[in-house]
Specification:
Helix content is 33%, strand content 27%. It has 3 domains: 195 residues, no CATH class; 106 residues; 134 residues. The chain has 12 helices and 18 strands. A 7-stranded mixed beta sheet has the order 6-7-8-4-1-5-9. It is of the alpha+beta class.
Length: 457
């Protein structure tokens, strides 16, 4: 980022820096996806409640050591240097006074809400209280949470909001400006970020697993999911008429841009664990995917040849599986092929989906609650419970207590990760988002409990 910082230092202090990945544009002459620079409005994520605006950081903040806490911005493809146009009404939330907050709330028709906010004794500075007041309006009036800010700020003639070190927008991004007026700034410079050039982690991952799967499996299907900061890609196919799964795990790095991944094989038919392989690709360095991954594929095949595979069994019928099937709502016990040997159910309500999976081979429950964003599901909480061999064979053992324990475990994880009872204090408004998500998860768990007719303590 040295050259970028050098360029930024040449501009006056009243400029701001906007980081963006640009937009994808497919070339008309090839299949290559090109990135093109574009500065645009941030609509806002489901987990956030922010104005629809152009967000940028003050010059001095970007040049300071504090900005390293947000080092993921360093890998954005394009960096805009922008400046407010003359005559823009910029509201500095960090310096807002009580009188200013009261006058603005009157202009917006929110005088009662302001007085209520200031009488709750939470100790917020006026700017934080003003921002929180707008945030709460959508809950009370059932309006779109991101549009609320813009609707009321326009009433008061405000073109931009400035958070000058108070962490009002976000605790990890304490200095930033939000241009509510899309025409309220001018672009001074556009810099192509040299650090961001090169192939993305996602593209590397898919190239690696496609190359290896082509060598070992021939025909296969690709699937993927995300668990917190870990991304998982799978290739599913057959090897010697046995189902084989090739997995690749990689992490989104918080700092630096080196690609680290672990790739390996798994199958219910394997009687022993096969070694996994580590792949490291330094950012900006050439990586011959075909050459390197074909060597890994050969090593994997050698391990497969040396390992012993379980013989196929036509059917697995277990007394315990019958009990689970009844809980899941099967009217007739399904025959379990050994290729899957699982009973699975998905329940969806709103943005949440519950996955239940019982494996007759591994004798374990896998449960997860996923949240949908942009049509894709990612895990919010998950759990696993193993069933002792001697108990699963005992015809007197009931399945319900194990499922009850699994659901209780999910409930405990909700309290541990999201703390639905947490109060919002000071400027830590993100606490509300997590607590609210926790409460929604508990409601969803109650919905699942009723589906299974299981008591969750």
């Amino acid at each position: 980022m040295g050259s970028v910082f050098d360029t930024l230092k040449r501009y006056p202090d009243n400029v701001y820096v906007h980081f963006t990945k640009g937009v994808s544009n497919k070339s008309g002459t090839s299949d290559k996806i090109l990135q093109q620079p574009k500065i645009g409005m941030k609509i806002g994520m489901q987990s956030h409640c922010d104005p629809i605006a152009i967000y940028a950081f003050p010059k001095q903040y970007v040049l300071s050591p504090q900005f390293s806490d947000n080092s993921h911005f360093y890998r954005m493809e394009y960096i805009y240097i922008i400046q407010p146009k003359s005559g823009q009404n910029i509201l500095n939330l960090s310096k807002m006074t009580e009188i200013q907050g009261y006058n603005l709330s009157q202009q917006m028709g929110l005088e009662d809400e302001w007085l209520s906010t200031r009488s709750d004794g939470n100790g917020r500075i006026p700017g934080s209280a003003f921002y929180e007041m707008l945030k709460q309006i959508f809950k009370k009036r059932g309006l779109n949470k991101n549009f609320i800010y813009n609707q009321y700020l326009r009433k008061a003639g405000i073109d931009a909001l400035l958070d000058n070190g108070s962490g009002i927008f976000h605790q990890n991004e304490k200095y930033q400006i939000a241009f509510i007026n899309p025409n309220g700034y001018q672009i001074l410079d556009l810099i192509e970020n040299p650090i961001a050039r090169g192939i993305s982690h996602k593209k590397i991952a898919y190239k690696i697993i496609n190359t290896i799967a082509s060598e070992i499996l021939g025909k296969y299907t690709i699937s993927s999911n995300k668990h917190y900061h870990q991304f998982n890609v799978y290739a599913n196919g057959q090897y010697k008429n046995k189902p084989i799964n090739i997995y690749l795990y990689y992490y989104y790095e918080g700092t630096g841009s080196t690609f680290h991944a672990k790739v390996g094989l798994s199958s219910h038919y394997l009687t022993n664990n096969l070694p996994s392989f580590d792949i490291t690709v330094p950012h900006g360095k050439e990586f011959d995917v075909n050459k390197e991954c074909k060597l890994i594929a050969i090593a994997m095949q050698n391990e497969l040849e040396k390992s012993s595979l379980r013989p196929s069994k036509k059917r697995i019928v277990a007394n315990f599986s019958n009990k689970i099937a009844k809980i899941l709502g099967y009217t007739k016990m399904p025959a379990l092929d050994e290729e899957t040997a699982t009973l699975t159910r998905h329940y969806k309500k709103g943005k949440f989906r519950f996955n239940f999976r019982y494996s007759a081979i591994n004798k374990e429950y896998n449960l997860s609650v996923l949240i949908e964003t942009k049509g894709l599901y990612s895990a919010v909480i998950d759990g696993k419970i193993n069933i002792p061999e001697d108990e699963i064979k005992d015809p007197k053992v009931l399945a319900e207590p194990y499922l009850e324990k699994a659901l209780d475990d999910l409930k405990e994880r909700i309290y541990m990760l999201y703390n639905p009872n947490r109060e919002t204090h000071g400027d830590k408004m993100y606490a509300f988002d997590y607590a609210e998500k926790g409460r929604q998860l508990l409601d969803f768990l109650e919905f699942i409990k009723n589906k299974f007719a299981i008591t969750v303590s």
